[in-house]
């Protein structure tokens, strides 16, 4: 059986706050992290983060250009912190990225290869952002993929639905947090 890792992506205060309380997202995500740890599956947090002054952000970058002007997600920004309801525990890895995909500008692939990880379980905000970009790049890097559909959020529910029901199944298994978490317990 291939070694898996659970990726918790962009679940940072400043991002979660944009979505408000959606009726259970963070508790579901906590259920996934707890199930992963209990099964011995590494939990890897992926965060967006920049140096002060955002020297990594080109003004031509439509996604991050406005963010840089506002000073967001730089070192010391409280909004850049992982949401306290799902904070990493000892032994979890935190990877900082510089673009939308979890692999872009980070050492994620190095961490995964060093740990012998071949399968990724994806969660995060937003489905149409970090989850989509990471899924596409991970598939090109030959990782096996699972997406926890209710472990992802998007500002547009219809985009989330189309991605999780029509697009992601072409490259990944798509399931729920509870189904995945229950299977982790059965595998022990």
Structure description:
There is one protein chain. The protein has 188 residues and is α/β, with parallel strands linked by helices. The chain has a single domain (3-186), classed as Rossmann fold (3-Layer(aba) Sandwich), CATH 3.40.50.850. Helices cover 39% and strands 21% of the residues. It has a 6-stranded parallel beta sheet, with helices on both faces. Strand 4, helix 5 (127-140) and strand 5 form a beta-alpha-beta unit. Helix 2 (25-39) runs parallel beside helix 7 (177-186). GO terms for molecular function: hydrolase activity. This is Isochorismatase. It comes from Streptomyces nanshensis.
Share in β-strands: 15-25%
- The name of the CATH architecture is 3-Layer(aba) Sandwich
DSSP strand count:
6
Order of helices and strands: EHHEHEHEHEHEH
Instruction: Please report the number of helical segments.
Output: 7
Task: Domain count, please report it.
Answer: 1
Provide the helix percentage: 25-40%
Largest sheet: 6 strands, parallel
- Kindly identify the CATH topology: Rossmann fold
State the end-to-end distance. Answer: 12 Å
Oligomeric state of the chains present here:
single chain
The CATH homologous superfamily: Isochorismatase-like
GO molecular function: hydrolase activity
Keywords: Hydrolase
Protein name: Isochorismatase
Organism: Streptomyces nanshensis
What brief labels describe this structure?
188 residues; alpha/beta; Rossmann fold; six-stranded parallel sheet; 39% helix; globular; Isochorismatase-like_sf; Isochorismatase-like_dom
């Amino acid at each position: 059986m291939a070694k898996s890792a659970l990726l918790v992506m962009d679940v940072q205060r400043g991002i979660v706050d944009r979505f408000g309380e959606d009726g259970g997202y963070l508790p579901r995500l906590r259920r996934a992290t707890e199930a992963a740890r209990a099964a011995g599956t590494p939990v890897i947090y992926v965060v967006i983060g920049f140096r002060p002054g955002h020297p990594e952000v080109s003004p031509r970058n439509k996604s991050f250009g406005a963010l840089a002007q506002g000073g967001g997600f730089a070192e010391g920004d409280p909004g850049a912190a992982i949401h306290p309801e799902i904070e990493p525990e000892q032994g979890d890895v935190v990877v900082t990225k510089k673009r939308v995909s979890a692999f872009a500008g980070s050492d994620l692939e190095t961490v995964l290869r060093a740990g012998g990880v071949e399968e990724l379980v994806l969660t995060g905000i937003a489905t149409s952002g970090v989850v989509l970009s990471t899924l596409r790049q991970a598939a090109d890097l030959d990782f096996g993929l699972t997406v926890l559909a209710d472990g992802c959020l998007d500002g547009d529910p219809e985009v989330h639905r189309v991605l999780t029901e029509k697009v992601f199944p072409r490259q990944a298994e798509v399931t729920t947090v509870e189904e995945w978490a229950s299977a982790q317990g059965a595998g022990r």
